[in-house]
Design goal:
Structural class: mainly beta
Shape: elongated
Order of helices and strands: EEEEEEEEEEEEHEE
Oligomer: single chain
Strand content: over 45%
Largest sheet: 5 strands, antiparallel
Helix content: under 10%
Amino acid sequence: GVVGEACTLAPTPGALGVVSCNVSYVPPAGGLSTGAPVPLTGTYSGDSVYAESSAHASSAASVWPTAGSASAAGEEASASLSCPATAKSCPATVSLSVEKKGSAVTASAARTVTIASKSVTLRGGQRRKVKVSLNGTGKSLLARHKRFSALLKIVSGHAVIRTTRVALRHR
C-alpha cells in the first residue's frame, strides 16, 4: 500500500518550473509480476493558474531483475542475476553476440550474430549465476580466431537490463 495518502508539491531542484512530491510504495505480499507498473496514480486538483491533472507511475517504477558481474572462460560466459523480493518472478535471457566484418570478429551492437543464449526465470528474492555456452557458430569462431570479445546482453521482457563486453579465449 501507499505510505501516506497525500504529498505536498515542492519545486524540483535544478528543474525550473517543475514541481514534484514523493511517496513510498510497499508492494502486496504476493509481489508484482516482472515489468508490471507500480499501481500508483498522482492527481492534482488544480488551482487558479493550473488545470487539474493526473498521471500513472512511469515505466521506471516497474519491477525488473538486476545484473551483477559478468565474465567468460573458455566456451562459456556467465552473469550474476537477482530478482527483487518484491517481484513474483523475473524472466531473463542472457545472450552473447558478435559482428563479423570479413574475417574479423568484433563485439558490436550492429548486425550481430548470436553465438550463445539461455533463458531463465528467477523467483522473487532469488540470486543466480547464469552460464551460457557457445553454440556451433560460436565454437567455430573461437577455434578459428582463438580469442575475441563478444557483447553479453541481459534482457527481461522488452527491457535491456545490461550490456557488457566479455573476452572469449580458446583453451
